[in-house]
Amino acid sequence: MVTSSSVRLVSSTTRELWNEWHAPSGYSINVATISYLLCALDDCHLLNFMWNTSTGELSDRKKISLGTQPITLRAFSSKNTTHVFAASDRPTVIYSSKKKLLYSNVNLKEVTHVSFQFRCFSRHLPIAKEGELTIGTIDDIQKLHIRSILLGEHARRICHQEPSRTFAICILKYNPASGEDFEMHFVRLLDDQTFKFIPTYSLDTWEYGDGIYDGGCSGGCIAIWCAWKDKASKTSVDEGVQNVWEILQPNGRRDNK
User: Fold this and answer.
1) Sorted alphabetically, which PANTHER family does this protein's record hold (predicted)?
2) Number of domains making up the chain
């Protein structure tokens, strides 16, 4: 039983009140249930509880923020599993895996409401926002595989170059052999499939890599913004140079334009 300020769990057979939770004053509640009880508040927060369906006990209360607009919840099924769609300015699919409640962002800017689910097309959802209705599907949740690559140096800037399938990284390294904190700047290329290093290129002695981005050319160019530093004072000056390099395959050689 849901009111404007509380959630009450009542036995469907005996009408006995099992549990009751009161929202802060002025908050309304929208509820969808899976193995948890979810309560959406008007202040853009979502409460979730572990729910013992036998005793009606609520436990493990948690509160998270989902966007900046009020949230509405709608349960839907995908591959015989119940999920919850949280509609807001940061739409999110909520699901349970290995006894944990997980949240996956949806690639939409804003969703006002998910109104119903087609019985004959169980994978399709009508997603509404102001002036627009979209009928779409939710893809399977993808797992993130994280791999750390040891550089041994300080990575200052990075960009991905699609035609050459490489990452270009501006590297800063200190040279202890000089007897002082002498900075050396490089550009390192990394294969985006094997994560193996292709050649490393040194910038000029007083060039400091301050920016790097994909040049947008079909041939595979990257642009590197370099600030100049005064050789005497070693301080930055308001001057610099832009280098445009073409990444050639398979040896990764560059053309400095």
Assistant:
1) DNA REPAIR/RNA PROCESSING CPSF FAMILY
2) 2
